Amino acid sequence: MKFSAEEKDILVKKIQLYFDQELGQDLGSFDAQFLLDFFAEQIGPYFYNRALFDANTVLQEKMDAMSDALYEIEKPTEFIR
C-alpha cells in the first residue's frame, strides 16, 4: 500500500496517539512510521482483499437486481430460451 506524505503524517500521528492513550507509551515518529510500514506491507493486503471481496459482493447484488429488472420488462414472444 502506498500513502501520500500527508496520509502518512496523519496515520503516524494516529498511531502515536493510540499508543499514548491506550497503552500509556510514548512512541516516536520513527517507530510509528516503522509500525505503519509493517502494517501496510504485511496486514494491508488482507484489508485490501476484503474490501475487494465486499465491493464485488455489492456489485454482484446490484447486477442481479438489474438482471431481474430487465427480465421483468421483457416482452413475451414465441421464442423460448
UniProtKB/TrEMBL annotation:
Superkingdom, taxonomy of origin: Bacteria
Entry-linked InterPro entries: DUF2164
Name used for this protein in its record: DUF2164 domain-containing protein
Naturally occurring in which organism (per UniProt): Gilvimarinus japonicus
Organism lineage string: Bacteria, Pseudomonadati, Pseudomonadota, Gammaproteobacteria, Cellvibrionales
